[in-house]
Amino acid sequence: MKSVLGIAVFAFAALFQGPAMARGSVPVINYENVAVTTGSGKPATAEQVRQAFITGTAGRGWTYTQAGDGKLLANLVVRNKHTVSAEIVYSGDKFSVTYTGSVNMNYELKDGKPVIHPNYNNWVNNMLSDVRVELTRL
């Protein structure tokens, strides 16, 4: 009886493991020309916006490489299994975050439109929330 119960539990877990692990892809969300808003209402400098990305998201594991004037390349490695990259173009009054690449995130073109695992959009959305918090401190 004990072995039958064990087999039933294993079969039940195997039946539901696939759908839980395999998530459907969603459209890649890029953020274009997002207005920079500071807590004081004063204009920010490009350097302050750059620093808001670096400081605000450090706790989430994002790393940055300067990719020219007003450009950063953002990278996030999750559990040494998933990697995502985005280009950030910034100035004192606006910024954009655009997908540039990923590893193990199910990225593909469907009907000519980029789709990806939904965690990518969640991670970028968290990045933007953290940046907004940093900008409110200015």
TrEMBL record:
The keyword Signal is annotated on this UniProt entry: yes
Signal peptide span: 1-22
Keywords of this entry: Signal
Superkingdom of origin organism: Bacteria
Name listed for the protein in its UniProt record: Lipoprotein
Biological classification of the source: Bacteria, Pseudomonadati, Pseudomonadota, Betaproteobacteria, Burkholderiales
